[in-house]
Every structure is written in structure tokens, then in C-alpha cells.
Amino acid sequence: MDHDSLIKVKNIRKQFGDKVAVQDVSFDIKKGEIFGLLGPNGAGKTTILRMMTTLLRQDAGKISLNGFDTLTQGRLARQQFSITGQTAAIDQDLTARENLIIFGKLNGLSRSAAKTRATELLTDFDLINSADQTLATFSGGMRRRLDLAISLIGKPAILFLDEPTTGLDPRTRMQMWRAVQKLVAEGSTVLLTTQYLEEADHLANRIALIDHGKMIAIGTPSDLKKHVGGMQLRIEITDQKWRVQVQKIAHDTLALPVNVSDRTLTVLIDDTSMQMVPQVLNQLQAAKVPISNFAIETPPLDDVFLKMTVGKN
Amino acid sequence: MKSMTTKNRFVSNILTMTHRNLLKTMHNPDSLSDVVIEPVIFTLLFGYLFGGVIAGSVQAYLPMLVSGILVQSILNAASGSGQQLREDINAGVFDRFKTLPISPITPLAGQLVGDILRLLLSGVVALITTFLMGWRPTADLPMLAAALLLAIFIGWATSWIFVLVGLMAKNAELIGSLSMIIILVMTFLSNAFIPVKTLPKVIQAIVKINPVSLTITAIRTILSTGNWGSNATLVLISGGVIILIFMPLTVLVYQRRD
């Protein structure tokens, strides 16, 4: 049934001393998918990634990459992927080109093939003009781009990205996103971890929400948004003095908790309370409350995140 | 046939990794400054300061000093392996190596093959400095080379110990300063720079069981007589034993490091 899954993670668990870092996490990733592991700092995302990349052995459960078990067929499993970590794992003392050629050769390319591929990647990642400088002169964004380029030198079937854009400026972040999308278009499969909802929302086909080592939700970004309660009612008022009154009207009519921030009130609504929304509007009119906006919309992923991890951190 | 290609692949990966370490050194020649400056300074200092007191004259002291300086320089160079490895691990480069489809010991092997250059350089500098100060070996060129190779071999064996320490400790600077202290104590509490018979009995006993003393005696014998003595064979065996114990241990710790 899941013969087209390239990556299978089944009931993995990892404990450090007394602390359970990852507990019973399972998911499958199909070929050509961008899969996001989303969660706050310390949720266990990197631990999961380290187990998937054979850097750490799980205490229980099974991980297979393109059919190869990470514990018993480590070397074959390692041939399936490449990883780009949170910090650029490159040799500061070498030039960009030397870094690429060395990793190319270690990936099994001949010297001349490694050289050709290095030039190709340097051009793709806009690094060709700095190719023969040592990395001391490189900016943070250039290092991260080189790091990703090194990951691609062996044309891996699977690419793991551990918080690929943490600490990058918006322009470089866009460049990284485009590079990832281009890769997937060429047939790679990507797993990325991120603490940025925007990034997961923008890039990932499916997202697993991780908190305290557990997977608390999995699905497409829009699935997850529905999971919260379908839609969100947003009312904006022109003056703060109306806040208490509007909150009371919304709460009494919908019988749901109302979030208030500044001049914006939001309520996560389900199908039944949806029917009551016109009444809210009527009552606001009757009370002569001036409003500047009244909208029903899909909640941003931030709300999903907050709702699911709230009170636990 | 298949095992042959796997074997070729293993060797070529180690060569690539060695090439990487050499490139790093070429871009950063000052990383070799310790193995060049240290032997020069110690030879000059010890020769001119203590030559007269210990042996009557600088010239008379040099035949004794040369073997002490050679071994001290080599051990110092060997201790650098652990520190370099730690820096690489802290930079995250080794995690990337570990996810490559290569034998997990390749990066370690590359580091240790590359280190032979450091050892060779420090040994040669020690010998040349003493030569320029007026020391002339009794040994002929092949035996001189044998003494140098023996020193490099024991230094290389010791670097496995330093690499193990480098793997287990977290802080590169700490390893650097600790290694420095250990080497200073080990070489000064040996027959490297002084005649042992002038020492108090208790210290003499320590000096005699210090493996550094054995190494120095072996090299001193080769350099001053031109003959390979029984001590040299003993040193060779000891180096082999160190490698036999620490190579698997280091590889094990390296692979199990989470």
C-alpha cells in the first residue's frame, strides 16, 4: 500500500539518560515530496533528523531510506541522502571549489567529474566569482549556499535540511527556497526541519508537528489549519473602548473563546457556530459599534501551532 | 574483483582526506609554526643556557641534547593531532563526513596520515637546528634516517592516544594546554636534557620507568654509535603495542560518539 514511500519512519524512540527526547514518532514520505518537521526549539526535530541520517541510533523503532535500514544497512542508507545542518559544516580553511571537489570525490566521483560538477554548482548557487577564495571572506549566506551546494554534489535522492534558513536574511532565504524547489522539480525528496511556520507553509507539501518529542499532528498545511476548527472569524474595531462590548457579544452568541489583541478580536469557529456569525454582525449593528473589518478566513498556521503547543511549553 | 574495487575506493578516500588536510595546511601555513618554531627555540635555549653547566661546553652538550629535542619536538607535534581533530568535530565537518558513503574511519585515517608531515617537519627542523649549532652525527645518513623514522613512528603511535583524548574531551584549547603540560613533565622527568646520575634517587627511579627515557636512549644510541641497539627494537615494539591498543579503541570511540 505504501510501496511508493521513499522514507519510512516507524515508532522511533530515543532517550538521553532520564529524558525522553523522541517518543513513538512515525511517518512516511513519498518520492518527490517536501516534508516539514515543525516544532519549537528543543522539540526533538534535530534528534529525529540525526537518527534518520545515521548520526544517532534510535532506542526503538525502524527507519528505512529507499528500502535501506539505517541501523543494519547504514552504508547503503547513507548513499541515499545528503544533509545540510543548522550550521554550515564546511572547511573554513579551504576554498569553495576545493570543498566541493573533495566532497565530490568522497561521494565517488572521479577527479575530473568532481571538478565539472563543482563548477556547475558554483554557477548555480551564484558563487563562481568567489570560487577560489577561502571561506574567511564569505558571508553567512554564501556559506549556507555553499553548504547546500556540497550536499547536492552527489545528486542525492533524499535531501535532509536542518533549519536551512535560520539566521539568513530574507533575500538569501528566498534563494534557498528556490534552490529547494528546483531540486524537488528535478526528482529529489526533501525533509526539512524548521521553526518558521511561514517556511513550512510556503515549502512543505506535508507537515508533522513535533512538540516535546511527540508528533502531535500530521497533514498538509491546509489540513492542519482545518484541524484547529476550520475557519476563523476576525473582527477589527476602530477604538479600543468597544473591546469589552464586542468580546461579550461574540462570546455570548458563539459560545466560544474570543482572542483579543489590540483592536483585533478573533474566534476559531466550527461548522455549527458558523451559522451564528450573522447574528454577531446584527448585534454589533444594533449596539452601534463601529467596526473596520469583519472577516471569515483560514487561520494562519501560527494559530495552529499555538493552539497545539499551548500550555505545554 | 569486487573486494578489490572496494579496497581501491578505501585507499583513494583516505588519499582524498589526506589531500584535504594538506590543503588546509597550505592555506594556513602558520598552523605549522608550532612544529617549526618550538624545536628551534628549545634547541637554542637549552644549548646555549645549559650546555656549559651540564656538559662543560655547548659543543659537548649537543650530542646529548639532539635526541632529547628530537623526541620532545615529535611528541609536541603528535599532541597537535588531537587538537586539530577536536576543532574539525566542533566545526561540524565530521558530522558531514559521517553521513558520506565512505568507511567511517576514513576521516580519522586521513587526519593521521596527514599528521606524518607535521612529525617529519618537526623532526627535521630539530636535527637541522642542532646541526647548524655545530653537532655532527656519528651515524651515517641511513642510520640518521632510521633514528628520525623511529622518532616519527613512536610520535605517530602516540598521536593515536592524543586523538582518543581529543575525541573524548570537548574543548580544543583545554586539550592543547593539557597536552603541553603532559609533554613538558614527561620530557623533563626523563634523560632528555640532563645526566640522570645527578638526580635524587626517587626522581631517578621515575626517570628510569618513563617511556620517554627509553625512546631517547634508543635514539641517542643510534645517533652516537651508528648502530641499531636493542633499545630501538624495544621502542619499535612498544610503538606497535600502543597502536594495537589505541587504534581500535580510538576507532570504537569515534564510531560510537553520538
- Biggest sheet of chain A: strands, sense, closure? 6 strands, mixed
Question: Kindly state the mean pLDDT of chain A as a whole number?
Answer: 86
Strand order of the largest sheet of chain A: 6-7-8-3-9-10
Structural class of chain A: alpha/beta
Largest interface: A-B, 31 and 24 residues
| Rg of chain B, Å, rounded | 19 Å
In the CATH hierarchy, the third-tier topology of the largest domain in chain A is known as Rossmann fold
Question: Strand percentage of chain A, roughly?
Answer: 25-35%
Number of helices of chain A: 12
Number of helices of chain B: 10
Mind telling me the CATH class of the largest domain in chain A? Answer: Alpha Beta
The SSE order of chain B reads HHHHHHHHHH
Oligomer: heterodimer
- Strand segment tally of chain A: 14
Number of strands of chain B: 0
Q: CA-to-CA gap between the ends of chain B?
A: 35 Å
The name of the CATH superfamily of the largest domain in chain A reads: P-loop containing nucleotide triphosphate hydrolases
How would you describe this structure in keywords?
heterodimer; A: 313 residues; alpha/beta; Rossmann fold; Alpha-Beta Plaits; 2 domains; 6-stranded mixed β-sheet; 4-stranded antiparallel β-sheet; 14 strands; B: 258 residues; mainly alpha; 82% helix; 0% strand; elongated
